[in-house]
Amino acid sequence: MIHADAPACWKPSRTLRRLALGLALLTAPCVLAAAPSIAQEGIVVPAPARDVAARPARTEVAVVAGGCFWGVQGVFQHVEGVANAVSGYAGGDKRTAHYQQVGGGDTGHAEAVEITYDPSKISYGRILQIFFSVSHDPTQLNRQGPDTGSQYRTAIFPRSAEQAEVAKAYIAQLDGAHVYKSPIVTRIEPDRPFYRAEDYHQDFLTLNPTYPYIVYNDLPKVENLRRLFPDRYRGQPVLVSKAQATN
Length: 247
What we know:
This protein is of the alpha+beta class. It has ten helices and eight strands. It has helices spanning 12-26, 29-34, 38-41, 69-76, 99-102, 124-135, 161-176, 204-207, 212-228, 240-246, and strands at residues 60-66, 82-90, 110-117, 143-144, 147-148, 154-156, 187-188, 194-196. The longest helix is centred in the C-terminal third of the chain and has 17 residues, at 212-228. 41% of the residues are buried.
């Protein structure tokens, strides 16, 4: 449910629009059956031929964007080896890293997720494989599902030159293998800081499992992770709220 004490910057019009879209889609099964998306069905793409070199670091960070951050965060919170997944904004200026402004589509920001992971348990390339397989459709330009605008673009925000090179090579590898019917439109945007989103966006999928938008658009992604990557799936998600409590 949406909490009654949500901050004033919560934008009812966008929230209600997502709710209405979710309800409309849920009542139109014949339409859904006729046009399933990659994100709804999931697809196991080949592992990257090139990956970030292993290091003795205890944690590494990856930042990706693939539509509404609720679902992307929810997927990676269920990935074994991920220590935290935080919803936020990347691509624009710190002054405009706020939900109400980002929703206008003219800040340069994308709704993004910062993924902190243990490189001894999962690699950067494996993170990208899951990103391209189940968390979104990388062939949709400036949209995902019912959400449209550059703030919903598919993008990777590398934290190093090596991450950028791996991401670029991986996109070329997948396009060369014709994994998808259309070319990948994921942008690689280096040197873009990540800004954490408002607290009421964190852990949204777990806290609101019956919310229609989540039911239709995002829970299938988590199920696809469990089905297609059983060795990477964990049933108990790692939550931002718990990570904060332990720090």
